Fold:
Amino acid sequence: MKEAAGEANMTVVTIVLIAAIVAIATPIITRMMKSIEQKTCCTNEGGIWTNGSCSIDYECKDY
Structure:
């Protein structure tokens, strides 16, 4: 019986750790994707992306 309880506890710990990692990683990945989208849009319109801004005055559409 102790073995089964130990395995159940380990399963709960694993699920909690996976949930924590997903909760931390999701905003980071979302931010990275938005940044890449802006850089791509700038480049596609003929601009150069430097220091967080585009060299041309063009606003990309939100998709």
Notes: The longest helix spans residues 2-44. Residues 2-54 form one domain. The chain has one domain: 2-54.
